[in-house]
Amino acid sequence: MRIKEIHVFQKDLRIEGPPYTMARTELHSLDSTLIKLVADNGLSGWGETCPIGPVYQPHHALGARAALAELAPSLIGEQVSLNTLHQVMDDSLNAHGYAKSAIDVAAHDLLGKHYGVPVSELLGGARVESVPSYYAIGIGTPEEVSRTALDKVAEGYKRIQLKLGGRPIAEDIAVVRKTWEVIGPANRLVVDPNRSLTASDTITLSHQCAEVPMTIEQPCNTMEELLNLRGRLCHPVAVDESSEGLNQFLRAIETGVCQGFGLKISRMGGLKPFSLVRDLCALRAMPHSCEDSWGGDIVSAACVHMGATVQPKLLEGVWLAQPYINEHYDPENGITIENGSIAVPDRPGLGVVPDESALGSPEASY
To answer: In whole angstroms, what separates CA 320 from the centre of its chain?
Structure first.
C-alpha cells in the first residue's frame, strides 16, 4: 500500500461563547489544517494539526501548511509504513514536528482501516473502554472561575485546570483559593500559567496556596527557570511547553525538573513518537495528560486512542477542544465528552470520517 495522493484542507474552528483566555493570548477562532492521505488501494486516512496561534509554541497554521508543501511531494509513492514515512519526512525537512504529526496521524488512520482495527490497537491496545477528560477554565475573576469550576464538577469532570498569569500574582492566588474552597478535595486541581510567571511569582503562588493540593503546570518560560524552582515549591510541577520534542522531554526527566507532563501529540511529532514518550513515562512512573493544542474530531480521536493505551494510574486526562467549538467534522461519530469521560472509538482507524463536503475544496493537492 503506497501513498497516491495528499490533499490539504483549511478549516476555521470558531469558539462558541466568550473567548478562550490564556496569559499570552485571547482566542476567538482557530485555524486548523486537515490532510487526507489517499492510498493506491483506494483507502484514505485523515490527519490534523491546529496550533493555538503563533505565540503559544513555535508553531503556527501558515507554517504547518508551508511545511506540508515541503513534505508532501517526497511522500508520494512511499509505502504507508510509519518508520518509512518518519524517515522520509525527517530527510525532507528539519524539525516542524507539528506538521509531520498530521501525516503521522493520517497514516495511523489509514493503516487502521487497512487492517480493520482501531488506531489504539496499532499503539499497543486499549486498556479501557473510556478515558477521563478534564476541563480547562480561562482566566477570570475568583467568582467567575469558581462558578464555572463548580458547574464542570457537576457535569462529571474530576480534574479542573485553571489558566493563570498576565496579571498581579495576588489575583491568581485569590482564584486558586476560591476555586479550591468551592470544589473541595474530591477533585483534582491543576493551575497553568502557560509560561507567564517569573520564578519569584511561582514561589509566591505555591507558598501562599500551600494548603491547596494542586499541580503547577509550566509556570515559567524556560527549562532553566524551572530548574531554578527545584526544592523551592510546595507543589509538584508538570512540564508542558518545554517538552518540545523527544530531546527536551528526555532532558526534563534527566534533570528531575518535574514530576509529570502535559503532553501534546503535535509537539512530539505524531502518535509514533508519542508512544515512545508514553513508554518512558511508564518506566519512570511519570503521570501525564494526552492531548493536543487544539483541533476538531481528528485530533480528538487521536488523543483518545493514545490515552486509552496509557496506564490508567498515570493518565492525567485527555483534554479536548470539543466543548469550546461545538461542531463536528463527522456528524455521526464525532468525539464527545459525557459525564467527564470519552468513549474510545472501536471502529477501524480513528473511527471518525470527516464530511468532506463541509470542508470545501483543498487548499493544495499533491
So the answer is: 7
Query: Pick from 353, 23, 52, 15: which is nearest to 194 by CA?
Result: 23
Q: Which residues have CB under 8 Å from 65's CB, separation 6+?
A: 8, 10, 33, 99, 363, 364
Q: How confident is the model at residue 114, as a pLDDT?
A: 98
Element (DSSP H or E) covering residue 69: helix 61-75
Rounded Cα distance between 337 and 16, Å, is 16
Q: Which residues are catalytic?
A: 163, 264
**What is the C-alpha separation between 25 and 314, in angstroms, rounded?**
30
Task: Give the three cell numbers for residue 81.
Answer: 509504513
Angle of helix 169-183 versus helix 142-154 axis, rounded to 10: 30
Distance CA 254, CA 173 (A): 31
Instruction: Enumerate helices (H) and strands (E) in the chain, giving the number of each.
Output: 13, 16
CB 306 within 8 A of CB 275: yes
pTM of the model: 0.97
Integer Cα distance of 23 and 79 in angstroms:
43
For 209, residues 6+ apart whose C-beta sits below 8 A from its C-beta are: 173, 176, 177, 180, 234, 235
Cβ contacts of residue 247 below 8 Å, gap of 6+? Answer: none
Residues in a beta bridge with 216: 191, 237
Q: Phi/psi class of residue 292: alpha, beta or left (left: φ > 0; alpha: ψ in -120 to 50)? A: beta
pLDDT in tens, 144-197: 999 999 999 999 999 999 999 999 999 999 999 999 999 999 999 999 999 999
Digit-coded pLDDT (tens) for 5-62: 999 999 999 999 999 999 988 999 999 999 999 999 999 999 999 999 998 999 999 9
Query: Alpha-carbon Rg of the chain, whole angstroms?
Result: 20
Indicate the pairing of strand 3-14 with strand 29-39.
antiparallel
Backbone angles phi, psi at 316, to 5 degrees: -80, -10
